[in-house]
Amino acid sequence: MTTVPKFVIGNWKMQARHEHGLQLARDISRRLKDAPPPPHLHTIICPPFTQLDGVHQALKETGLPHEQLGMGAQDCYPASSGPFTGDISAPMIRDLGARYVILGHSERRQNHGETDAIIRQKVKAATAAGITPIVCIGEHLAERNEGRAASVLSTQIEGSLTRGFRGILAYEPVWAIGSGITPSRDELQRKLTLIRALLPMRLMTDDIRVPVLYGGSVTSVQAPSIMSIEAVDGVLVGSASLEAQSFLDIIDAAAEATTPQPSP
Ligand code: PEP
After folding, report:
1. Looking at the chain, which terminus has fewer C-beta neighbours within 10 angstroms, N or C?
2. pTM of the predicted structure, to 2 decimals
3. Which residues of 26-64 are buried (b: 16+ CB within 10 A; e: fewer)?
4. Is 172 an annotated catalytic residue?
């Protein structure tokens, strides 16, 4: 049995209204309570801020440890409190049961002008509040086509991670998000190998193992192939996490692809 944890993370974005979100959390929880995935597979659900409390209650009712079934928020503010109208701090999301927070998603980089420096401040804030940051990096299509992906990823790793970063990294090529297109196995393997090579320089040590996930148009159809790539520690799922059965199918596929089969 593998001891390296693998992750399936659902990012609901701003897409489920209150009752829908809670029902989704209950449906996922019920199935995972009846048939829990193997302990090395960590499932994390990231609802909008307004549903954190309700989703946390639904997940808790499974009785599964938070490592196996946890909850994350989709952002947090760099300061822990203060006159920041409309913002929500890391300690606030921690109060509602969040153990993780997605930071630097390309939609926030694009729509809110988040820079690597801001993301790094958020990483510090999350870590100080006892929350594991899930930092997203990824190149745009033009950057990929112009052969600049490696330098973009290197800049993002250097700029958005802290030294000694203890969190999760998600490689999410912007051109794969919501497009129905996923990189080939070969491209994914190359990109993740590159990311793994860049990490020790930023961490200033190679003893820290940072899980590196893939995100972008993952469905239960591609999940087995993606999860079987050795360098991939899990998947970050957007659209397909908004329907209980499709998210559960991805969890099942990830469990199957990462659980060693007994030799005949
Ligand atoms: C995402 O936005 O993080 C994501 C992976 O979205 P999708 O799965 O819908 O491409």
Report:
1. C
2. 0.96
3. bbbbebbeeebbeebbbbbbbbbbebbebbbebbeebeb
4. yes
